[in-house]
From TrEMBL:
Catalytic reactions on record: 2 GTP = 3',3'-c-di-GMP + 2 diphosphate
First-tier enzyme category under EC: transferase
Leader sequence segment: none
CDD domains for the chain: GGDEF, PAS
Domain spans labelled GGDEF: 186-319
Enzyme Commission number(s): 2.7.7.65
Highest classification ranks of the organism: Bacteria, Pseudomonadati, Pseudomonadota, Gammaproteobacteria, Alteromonadales
InterPro entries noted in UniProt: Diguanylate_Cyclase, GGDEF_dom, Nucleotide_cyclase, PAS, PAS-like_dom_sf, Rev_trsase/Diguanyl_cyclase
Alphabetical list of NCBIfam families matching this protein: GGDEF, sensory_box
Protein's name according to its UniProt entry: diguanylate cyclase
Length: 321
């Protein structure tokens, strides 16, 4: 008699824990009919255990990823091993609203789910258990950390004055494009843009005006960047662009548009109107160049040619007629 009472007490405690534990518990039979639906699932779905018991999971919740989830469950039945679904793999299986005050910015509950095989008295795997964990806090914290990391990485790669890539990371792009050309031999060009007479502007109006001029040119330059173009500050008053899938002729056309827009534009400094011009050099990468440094040298030669040709012009090597 005492043993029977102890057993009943243990059963009562187990039922109480199943209903009050802060994880979701769902038991399904081989046909995916619901045999157990605990208090956590009731609280978040609004569906009571008595109302849902015996119903097919996918018929009651048609929004579930049925084919994908069934494949997961079938592997548990077949292999008799547990399976795990991470929120990073799929943010949720059951789309429950998020009510946590700490992570109020999340619209829904992020979930980790464990699928466990349940054996009958004969040892056959007759049921499967779904354990649903609310990991919203962890997921939001991780995404926030990743966002901060992305911003920090972007900050470390960005030139503070122009908001283009800084010299170090732009040169990494030069190296990358050189390696891609060596492998695929697809056309790629480099453009160097140098502000004309910046020293005189610094001397006459001050270095702040010079910085404003560099920002002004960078702002116009960014308007001309295509999705595949990569702009950076090579140093001082010199900006650069990597032009993927672009030959000498197309690069020249793009450079002329940039030069013309800069020539026609103006900015205000200390209630004065300031206009600047730029000189631009271009070189399309070819097989004769055996290093990225050689490529940079060729672009620098083209830029020097633009300067000695009177500035405010575009020059390429070899020259375009």
């Amino acid at each position: 008699m005492p043993n029977d009472l102890d057993a009943m007490n243990e059963l009562h405690w187990l039922i109480d824990m199943v209903q009050t534990i802060e994880v979701g518990l769902v038991v399904l039979d081989r046909n995916f009919n619901i045999q157990l639906w605990n208090g956590f699932m009731e609280n978040h779905s609004g569906v009571s255990p008595n109302d849902i018991k015996g119903d097919n999971l996918f018929q009651r919740f048609p929004a579930l990823p049925e084919q994908w989830l069934k494949q997961k469950m079938e592997s548990v039945f077949l292999l008799k091993n547990q399976a795990f679904i991470s929120w990073e793999q799929r943010p949720y299986v059951f789309k429950f609203k998020n009510y946590r005050p700490i992570t109020g910015r999340a619209e829904f509950m992020y979930q980790n789910i464990t699928l466990l095989p349940l054996a009958s008295l004969t040892g056959q795997i007759s049921h499967i258990s779904m354990i649903v964990y609310d990991v919203t806090d962890m997921a939001i914290n991780k995404m926030q950390l990743e966002a901060v990391g992305d911003k920090l990485q972007q900050h470390n790669q960005t030139d503070a004055l122009t908001l283009l890539l800084n010299r170090r990371h732009w040169l990494q792009q030069v190296q990358l494009h050189y390696e891609q050309f060596a492998r695929y031999h697809e056309p790629v060009s480099m453009m160097m843009i140098n502000l004309d007479h910046l020293k005189q502007l610094n001397e006459s109006k001050g270095h702040v005006a010079g910085d404003r001029a560099i920002q002004h040119v960078a702002h116009i330059l960014k308007k001309h960047l295509r999705d595949t173009d990569i702009g950076g500050r090579f140093g001082g008053e010199t900006l650069g662009i990597m032009l993927s899938q672009t030959d000498n002729t197309a690069a020249f056309t793009q450079a002329e548009q940039i030069r013309r827009d800069i020539e026609q534009a103006e900015f205000s400094y200390n209630n004065q109107t300031v206009k600047v011009t730029v000189s631009i050099g271009i070189y399309q990468l070819d097989d004769e160049l055996n290093s990225p440094d050689k490529w940079l040298d060729k672009v620098d030669e083209a830029l020097a040619l633009a300067k000695v040709s009177g500035r405010n012009c575009v020059k390429t090597l070899p020259a375009l007629s």
